[in-house]
Amino acid sequence: MAEKKSDAKPDAKADAAPAPSAAKGGMKFALITVVLLAIEGGVLYAVFSMGGPKHAEATEPAVVANPEDEKPVELMVHDGRLVNDRTGISYLYETEIYVKVRKKDEAWVKDEIERTKNEIRAQVGGIWRTAEPHHFQEPLFDTLTRRVETAMRERFDHRSVDGKPTVEKCVLVVGTGLRVNR
Known about the structure:
- Helix 4 packs antiparallel against helix 5 (142-156).
- The chain folds into 2 domains: 16-48; 67-180, Tetrahydropterin Synthase, Chain A.
- The radius of gyration is 38 Å and the shape is elongated.
- A hairpin with a 5-residue loop joins strand 1 and strand 2.
- 47% of the residues lie in helices and 20% in strands.
- By secondary structure, it is of the alpha+beta class.
């Protein structure tokens, strides 16, 4: 029994001895990591310090001829009833369609709407008749608005002098569809 006890003691001493060497290895690794991070930080600081901001000059502010001309105005394009019968049942919708244009474009857009109101009515009616039933279930009629807005942009944006679109936005005001018996 005495021999067994003496065997156990040297093993315990042997286990205790590697612990300090493992701690020294961990300290070396930590020290190397800190030194490398410090070098990397110094290099990054030097690179960013050398690349400072370029010289900036102020320019004259852009002056708009008349700020009132840039304000948006809503023009009515269509006010009437439109029918959709894609489900096999006809539904009648009270509809108002407006386009939002800049004040400076208001006069010629209004003249163009008046001059081509039947073409616009036919085009919008075609969009309405070909719309799918789920388009009428959307809370803001996004699909129909997008299709009508595209048609209005194709019709009015060709006269834009400054590169900005003439039609800023299209607004649809749609009532609840009423079932029509035929």
